[in-house]
Amino acid sequence: MDGLTEKGRLRLEWAAANMPVLKAIRERFEREKPFKGLRVGMALHTEAKTGILALTIAAGGAHVRLASCNPLSTDDSVAQALRDVHGMEVYAKKGESQEVYYRNLNSVLDMKPDFVIDDGADLIAMLHTSRKEILPGIKGANEETTTGVVRLRSMAAAGLLEFPVMAVNDAQMKFLFDNRYGTGQSTFDGWMNATNLMVSGKSVVVAGYGWCGKGVAMRAAGLGANVTVTEVDPIRAIEARMDGFSVARMADAVRTADAVITVTGCKGIIGHRELENMKDGCILSNAGHFDNEIDKEALEAMSQRVEKVRDFVDRYTLGDGRRIHLIADGRLVNLAAGQGHPAEIMDMSFSVQALALEHMVKNHGKMEKGVHTVPHFIDENIARTKLASMGIEIDALTDDQRKYIEGWEEGT
Ligand code: NAI
Asked: pTM for the whole thing?
């Protein structure tokens, strides 16, 4: 086994050891084979935790193909170990060009999957555009992230989505932990790895106070930053203010920002106007799904010089001499410059994936085309197994308490 394969094998082993819920699911799948004879095409960040999900689905009897859902998020050691040690068909390479990225997604679709697991909805979009010939064979899909679910809801509203999709992102055991605590921690893992700089004492602006933004702002504050939040939703803006953060318009906030982290799922958060106002030396990064939150074309157009100053940091020198730094080309900082969410977090998210797929396989015949919520019993099962794995016991309602809560006669 060469060095890279061995490194990937150990990374997979480390992730698996910290994913107890998925382990229990995998052991059951090995016995019950719920996916026997099925083809499952996956486009997710190809790194260790995803590897464990792919192996779990394969353990359930499926033929699995995996590509990355982002050209920069592959861990090559893991991709190689999945191929060499586990014989899995993996189409992903860190830093692949846009052309290779789409070729790899096409390779997944070439297997004519029965079910797909997507992250960001590129695979599902291709099934409705360039690869329509495969569409009739698709029985259903899972979608991992907020941006993908938003895209699919738009497709469904326009009457264009041709099969049922489970909104894995919207399960409580996903977004409450993955988006908030996962993105919160891993964004700074990537940011600090890329810059080797202090967070403490810096003015950090977080764009978007959704589930991810809350986590990023919370961790920035915990690391000692002075945090400002930007929002377009007035309720979330008040939430940020009452959580103790400053709230401002982006065009104003950038005047004093040492770092800006975008995590909105929207585009053009940092554009020409914001760059005009930006403090010299500011470090820009993005944790939202697509790399369009920071307008790179505007940045390039305003720059006289671009230099790669560290592995994941480009320095743009603007016409007036100000220097703006961009991490990982504006792609997901936690995956492109870091190692993604902690394994304990992905244990929960990917358990939702595995059980949502099982539910879809059993029920797709009765499910309408469109976006579906993951049933609550799946969330609750995962939560109970996770608590048990953490050695935590909780109380249970007594019969008397249940009657009280469910009834209305008794007030005091
Ligand atoms: P969310 O919908 O809970 O929150 C997004 C927030 O951004 C909302 O409060 C919205 O009002 C705000 N927003 C939208 N446009 C804005 C603008 N122009 N300026 C300021 N604020 C704006 O979404 P969530 O779950 O927080 O996800 C955000 C993004 O992060 C999505 O693209 C999602 O796919 C991605 N994501 C990334 C992860 C990672 O590992 N880096 C993990 C999970 C999600």
From this structure: 0.94
